[in-house]
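Ticket #4471: structure output looks truncated?

Reporter: J.K.
Steps to reproduce: submitted the chain below (141 residues) through the standard prediction queue, then opened the result file.
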Amino acid sequence: MPINDVYVLYGLFGLAAILVIINIWLLVRLARIKGYEKLNAQVSEALADLDEVKNNLSSLEADEESDFSYSKVVRYDAFQDAKGRQSGSMLVLNRKGTGFIITIINSRDRSATFLKEVVEYKPVQALSPEEQVLLNEARKG
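Returned output as attached by the reporter:
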């Protein structure tokens, strides 16, 4: 004999009614427990603290995108007469590939410093071959 859908529906309504009655009974018993209000306040405070932690975490995740996460230095001889790899370039980027390259060129009688901007792995100014190698390595990851 097949089960009629109406009987299943009545059974589910009955089960739901029993669960509602049990839930009300448990709430009444819980309200009688000494310190329930204090516990309720502590739970509310804990939930508020949890919301604050979530907001702080979101803020930290947003800040993380702008923090520098990649850096590399390469040293080289910029001129034939200057030995000892006294010249060098340093690349510093955030997770989005935005940052800068600092290059210091040293020879026997003079020194020059260059600062070049990089936006999303693309240089704003023209790069030397050494600087381009640094940027290519960073782009590859």
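Triage note (M.O.): checked the attachment and the full token line is present. Residues 68-140 form one domain.
Status: closed, working as intended.
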